[in-house]
Every structure is written in C-alpha cells, then in structure tokens.
C-alpha cells in the first residue's frame, strides 16, 4: 500500500486513534487483573486454575500496552517535530501505507500506518526517523497494537538483500522468544561476533564481505546495541521496539548521534566504487532472502504441542481427575 496523506485534521484524528489503542488495552487489562483475582479468592468456593490464567494473560497485555504507551507517546513524537527546524527537515504527523519501503515490517502484516516522521539529510544522505503501526493480519489483531520504531537511510547505490540480526525484534520485554527466521544456508560470516547473525541473499556474498569491512563491523556493533539492521536495494533500515526519541534527553541525543554517524559513514564508504564496478552492464543479480519455513513450522508445532500438554494438565487437574 502506497502513501495516503490526509488533511491536517484527519491526520491528527488518525494519530490520536493510534495513541488510544494501547491506552485502552492497558486500562482494560489492568482492571481485569484484580477482578479475576477477586472472583477466584472471594467468590468461588474452590480456586479455579483455568481462571487464574486470566490475570496472568491480562498482566502481560497490560505490560506490553504500557510499553507502547511510554515509548511511542505524543511527547516522543513532539521531540522529532521540535528537531525539524534545527536540521532543516520535514516533519509529518501521519501517513497511511508504507511508501516505497520494502523492509520486513513494511512488507508483512496489514493496516500499516506511519506516524511521527522526521525527514532530513546528513552529508547528502536522506534519513527518515519514524514509527510504524500495523497488525499481524486482518484476523489476528493485537490488543496492544503492533509498533516498530524505524530509521531509513537512502543509499547511493543498490545493495543485495541483507539482514544483520541482533535479536531485537524477536524479543519481548528483553526476553528472546523466537529464533531468526532466515535460511541458515544464506548466513555469511564477516566477523561481526557471536551476538549477531548476517544473512545475505544469493549473489550478494562478495558485496557483503566488501561492505562489512573492519570499520563497518565495529560501527554496526554499536548500532546493534539498539537496532536490528536490514538492507534492501537502496534503503538501509534500522528497527527497534523503542522509539529513538524515547527516554531521557541524553538518550535521544545519543540515538541521534548514532544515526547521523551511521549516515555519514554510509556517505563516505568505499564500497560504492566496488558496487559501481560490478553494476556495469546488466549488473549482478541479487536474490531475496529465503525464510526457513521447515524450521519455523517445526518450532511452531513444538511450542503448540507443549502448550496443549500444559493446558490439558491444568484442565484435568481442575476437574479432579488427578486426585
């Protein structure tokens, strides 16, 4: 879905609706916790173990919703808007769609909306700092709303599809809950360390090794403390579960310095000469990364099997069949 920019009043209404979703989820789930506990402790004669799962799930939803309320708040968006005049940038409150972006969070899911976007240039490199709201699918609607903080740096030349994963998007509240989904045959070692994994689309291995020289690897280690990285065609994407402008003023200044240092490094990288030499004529053929479907399915069914066993044990115990 391409961009749809609405009038000022409509954009404000859409932005307000995005802000309301996690607040509503936090209020409802937060109120549900004491109610479910009170019913279990004071209304029912015997404790209902299945009913005890309600406050557990509600607590998790409340915590996740509060995370989005705090880290994607109007004050966070206001920081980006306030920076716009100082850097000669352009601030946009809300847009529907993903524009020309094809990174993973933009390509998958539904109901994509970008909000709180700042566009400006660093040493001639276009940079966008923004936020993405979406849903997993039309049927699977997250009560807290799905949020991604992102940065996009427009590159001088097209590069192969690469993902440098530090595990940020597969963590919930700091706990990693899923492995990398990309096929292990496309993993390339560039000396980035044990805490990260680089996956490169077929045909791009030589460019990847030239791009990730020693200095670039050290830079991306710093970037990887806060972001996962994806490169596709002429866009470099940074993804995080927390806005770059969230937190203290010192954190925001550090995030901005990190982003601008990365953009400047891209502008001065020697890899572009290598890319231009290889792109003469028809140029190289870069293929997209492949998801490891078999591994993902095995993990899904394993987790589902464990969940069925645990829930069955709870139900059997609640029915008194184990006594």
Entry keywords:
22% strand, globular, 323 residues, single chain, alpha+beta
Tally of individual helices = 9
Fraction in helix: 40-55%
Kindly report how far apart the N and C termini lie: 57 Å
Number of strands: 8
Mean pLDDT: 85
C-alpha Rg, in Å?
23 Å
* Strand content bin: 15-25%
Provide the domain count.
3
Identify the quaternary structure here: single chain
Which class best fits the helix and strand makeup?
alpha+beta
Order of helices and strands: HHHEHEEEEEEHHEHHH
Largest beta-sheet characterization? 6 strands, antiparallel
Poorly predicted tracts of residues? 175-179
Judging from the principal axes of the Cα atoms, what is the shape? globular
Describe what this molecule looks like in 3D:
This protein has 323 residues and is α+β, with helices and mostly antiparallel strands. It folds into 3 domains: 5-71; 74-278, no CATH class; 295-322. The chain contains 9 helices and 8 strands. It has helices at 8-43, 49-71, 74-87, 104-107, 205-211, 214-223, 249-267, 271-278, 293-318; strands spanning 90-96, 110-122, 125-135, 146-165, 171-172, 175-176, 197-200, 228-240. The longest helix has 36 residues, at 8-43.
Brief digest:
The chain is of the alpha+beta class.
What is the element layout, followed by pairings?
Elements: H1 8-43, H2 49-71, H3 74-87, E1 90-96, H4 104-107, E2 110-122, E3 125-135, E4 146-165, E5 171-172, E6 175-176, E7 197-200, H5 205-211, H6 214-223, E8 228-240, H7 249-267, H8 271-278, H9 293-318
Antiparallel strand pairs: 1-2, 2-3, 3-4, 4-7, 4-8, 5-6
Helix pairs in contact: 1-2, 6-7
